[in-house]
Write a structure and sequence with these properties.
Layout lengths: L5 E5 L6 E6 L8 E6 L2 H19 L8 H11 L1 E4 L2
Parallel strand pairs: 1-3
Antiparallel strand pairs: 2-3, 2-4
Helix pairs in contact: 1-2
Length: 83
């Protein structure tokens, strides 16, 4: 599975929130945007896509548990209300 540097997932046709996350690895510009009404769904999709990105782009990084990845995402995720 190859992922571009910009990925958008849409859970529903009615979109209230946009969530974005940028890879915290120095020098990496990979980002993910998720459009949804659910915080939990957004975090899960960001984790899913980021995990694939990490394996492809940063294979030498130490592996992390899902909880460690979740903590990183929750620290860095940005949320914006869409009108």
């Amino acid at each position: 599975m190859k992922i571009s540097d910009y990925v958008i997932f849409t859970e529903k046709e009615v979109i209230d929130m946009e969530y974005s996350f940028t890879c915290p690895t120095r020098g990496c510009n990979f980002s993910v945007k998720v459009n949804t009404q659910s915080d939990d769904w957004a975090v899960e999709k960001i984790i899913e896509v980021s995990s694939v990105h990490d394996r492809q782009a940063h294979p030498n990084l130490p592996s992390m548990t899902v909880q460690q990845i979740r903590n990183i995402v929750l620290l860095d995720v940005k949320e914006r209300v869409r009108i």
